[in-house]
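Input chain follows. Return structure tokens only.
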Amino acid sequence: MLRRTILLSATLCLSLCLCTAALAQPVATVAQKSAMAPRPIGPTADGHGRGLWLPEYVKDVHPGKPAVQPAPGMEDAPGDPSWDWEALGQCPPVRNQGYSGTCWIHASLGEFESREAILESVSPSSFEYSEQDIGNYYPASHFIAAGTGGNAFMVASYMSKYGSVNEADEPWVLPPTHGTWDPNNTYIKNVENWHFLGDCMSNNAAIKNALTYGPVSTSVHTAQLDAWNASWGTLVAPSSLTGSGTDNDHAVVIVGWDDNKPQTGAATLGAWKVRNSWGSSWGVSGYFWIGYGAAGIGYSSSYFPTTTEQAYVNYNSNMTVLNYDNGWDGGAYSWVSNATTAQMVNKYTIPSLPSGSNVLRAIEVCAMYPNATYTVKVYSGFDGTTLTGELASESGTLSDAGIYCIELDPPLAVSAGQARVLFVDIAYPLPSDIYVLPAPNTSTPQTNKCYARPSSGYGWNNLTGSFELVLRGKIEVLGTPTPTPTATPEPSEVGHWELFE
């Protein structure tokens, strides 16, 4: 009896110690959100719209290591002296954004349309997606001024949550009527993975490798080019016209290169061919050439991959997206402790679902920097302190910053009314003082739904009243087809050897 009493007392003491230790865990403090770099982004003096608006932290984002590799079957292309997707017929017609600050939509959709045309072996002139639809979705209050301000994060995030819409359903008008979005439009393609390379101003190899997949969205400092020469659209700005990238004010699309292209007023050779969105009467039929690295070209670059992951899938009308955000603009919070890791939780109750066998197919995460290691998990419960009932787990490495849909293998069966907790543990191999918690530009405020901490050594920070996390789940009905071409055409199919032999 005495022994049993002693054992019971020891067990109670141990339990109390463990509870005290758990209660004693420090709760990390969230620091301020990364600022959006302010700049005057109204139209140019001659009335052409600009409108790039980037989080300040992206100056520290670069391609991952190893850097982006050429597309399968295109390994030799970056070694060629020139490349031109427009000459290969894989660029959509040049659009005209007018005076509106929607270059970020035009550039991102132009990049996406070319990627789809290349993958599906169709003419990019045979379809057109709506810039208006995306412009209408984001509220004017988010922008510096109505009709201006945005970035490629916002387009990729929107197209991952919803999808692309045909131009005929939402034709382009000036200016976009922010906040008048029509949720009943018919979606065509849904983005799965998008890579943000960041600063490639001095990394020609990364851009050339990314170009083997298709045109690359990037940015440039038009105010600097205007100051250099008002006719820069028909000239070749020299590489000596260096820029920081942080002053870039306009989003454009790199479609090719020429290592032997003479630069205006310089002995240096080499330039990017760039598609603009100021109409076909501007520049050289809507395009321009610019020396490698000139005026910030290459800063804030991105592309759609198709190697081990899918860039997009055909839109599935039976898809349900678990989310609390209204889109991600690349904004993020850091820890006061300067930790380079984060564990994040979003608690969901599965809503009403389409009839059939529904499964949680993928968890969508946002990577702030390259070479992140991650683990995603699904739990059945979380009380604000302890995660319970692990149901699924996947781990890996994310090569670049960007948006990634992590496939669950096997998919997890779900039904309406169930509690499901999405968890991600992500770590970046970088020094301290980085931004690790992706936060939406706007969201529907939630109570006791979003939590974060640097690691398991900390208590959970309940983000109620602060911000929501961009951490989504994609639910689909089993057996619903979502076919997507994932193989890049062989070089002969796009005329690579024909063009350069």
